[in-house]
Amino acid sequence: MTESLRPAAARRGLTDTALKGIAVVSMVLDHIYYFFGYTGCIPTWCSMVGRLAAPLFLFCLVEGFVHTSNRKKYFFRVWVLAAPMGLLLFFMRYGGWFTRPDGFYPENSMLSTFVLLLLFYQGFEWIASRRASKVVLGLALVVFLVLWPQLAGRCTLLFPQTATVFGVLGYAVLPMMNFTGDLSLPVILVGLALYFAKRSRIAQVIALNVVSFGWHFVLVYLQVRTWPDFQMVQMFTTYYEWMGGLLATPLLLCYNGQRGAGYRRFFYAFYPAHIYILYALSWLLLLAMG
């Protein structure tokens, strides 16, 4: 549980709803760049500001998991939206369904990331309970989630005819790490870091920035520094994923521990709706441009 706040302090600062609202705005800017970047008219700063969305949403996911009165319902609400989006992504990627004439298709799968992280969180909660049966169940769940991509890959190699089945399972039923950018290891690590540091806001901010800066700045820099045309300024103009943690820091420190107005249905519906609306508009614009 996060640290308690005095009543006066709790009225100040940013609520959970406010953080989600900021995350939504930054996400929309990022996705405008993502879907319409081919026009050359969308400034890069839209994508830069968009780095803020994931850390805020992941923080709110941890808060939601910790404070919800019914974790099963919380999980199901996320899964029931993530599953059809994952299934559509599978058929877009491997069946060519609804792909734009230039071959582009949306790979957004943050809800699948939430599904996977919620399962990790529950596994670690069971382990922390120190009850033998729960500990065993939690360890089994965590190990399975880590090994699931390897197990599915091995099965499809041994039995190629099962590839479609495991593909649907991995995209829609039980998401696998690393099949899209949203489900990549660094995103999962940020979500886990925020969970393990949940008892202290300062610890969460430190954990967020250590993972984000370490993965997206340090490791990227070590990889690209030897490239012939690399310049240090590119860490701020091209490889700027690391900015998300820094941008989120002051906002997380202003969080007052309150839920706010909620607008749960809006936030759940907005994510898939805005993705497919922007995708359709980008398709129409591409056709209009000839």
List the defining traits of the structure above.
about 0% strand, about 290 residues, globular, about 70% helix, transmembrane helix, mainly alpha, disordered N terminus
What can you see in these coordinates?
The protein is mainly alpha-helical. The protein has one domain (about 5-290). The chain is built from 13 helices and no strands. The radius of gyration is 20 Å and the shape is globular. Mean pLDDT is about 95; it is low at about 1-10. Pfam families: TraX. Keywords: Membrane, Transmembrane, Transmembrane helix. This is Tat pathway signal protein. InterPro entries: TraX.
Number of domains: 1
Q: Supply Rg.
A: 20 Å
The largest sheet, given as strand count, sense and whether it forms a barrel, is: none
Tell me, briefly, the overall form: globular
> Helix segment count?
13
Computed structural class: mainly alpha
Helix-strand pattern, N to C? HHHHHHHHHHHHH
Cα separation of the termini: 55 Å
Structure described in brief:
The chain has helices at 7-11, 16-36, 44-50, 53-67, 71-95, 110-128, 132-158, 163-173, 185-196, 201-224, 234-237, 243-253, 264-289. The chain has 290 residues and is mainly α. The chain has one domain.
What's the structural blueprint in terms of helices and strands?
Elements: H1 7-11, H2 16-36, H3 44-50, H4 53-67, H5 71-95, H6 110-128, H7 132-158, H8 163-173, H9 185-196, H10 201-224, H11 234-237, H12 243-253, H13 264-289
Helix pairs in contact: 2-3, 2-4, 2-13, 4-6, 4-9, 4-12, 5-6, 5-8, 6-7, 6-9, 7-8, 9-10, 10-12
